[in-house]
Amino acid sequence: MRGFTLLELLISITMIGLIALIVTAAVRLGSRSVDGGERRIESLERLKNSIDIIESQIMSEIPLSYDEDGNKKYYFQGDRESVQFATTYSIWGNQRGYVLASLKVEVDNTGKKSLRVRESPLIGGVEAETTLFDRLDDIYFEYFYKDPTEEEGRWVREWTDEMNMPEKIRIGIVREKRDFSIILPIPSREKQIQTAQTTFKGR
Questions:
Q1: Which of 54, 89, 91, 155 could bridge to 142 as Cys pair (CB 3.0-4.6 Å)?
Q2: CA 59, 144, 85 angle in degrees (round to 5)?
């Protein structure tokens, strides 16, 4: 019976080592791919849930006003990096009546942007705050303005009309070099007329 030579044993050991190295690398790569996929799914799910929350708040927006030095002013305020409005929808679900929702864009030390939301009950209760979006390349708000004398409206970056509400709000999101936007309509004027009778004194 012929045995293995030293050279043949060395070649066999080397081949086994190479195969083991390739298999180990493939397993690690597969594990990283699975982990990355799970993180991506979790991130997309959180993004979807955050969009649902904002949509629910804006669709439940109420054009409430307050009195300041004898002047009637709406709670609604908006610019490119923040928006504030009264709504009947509370994220935490434990606030009674109307809450003042404030959405604000913040930037971290890496240049990534997040969106913070703060709820302040207009009568009683306590404030609550949380982060909806995080680690975005960009996020911004725009408002659809239409003058009664105009046939077509336009998108503006800041809402300066203190007597009226925008018809729609657009939320622009840039994530992983992908730019997309969400357009949310403000409740109809019929609903506004029914609810705008309530006026709060001061903030």
A1: 155
A2: 40
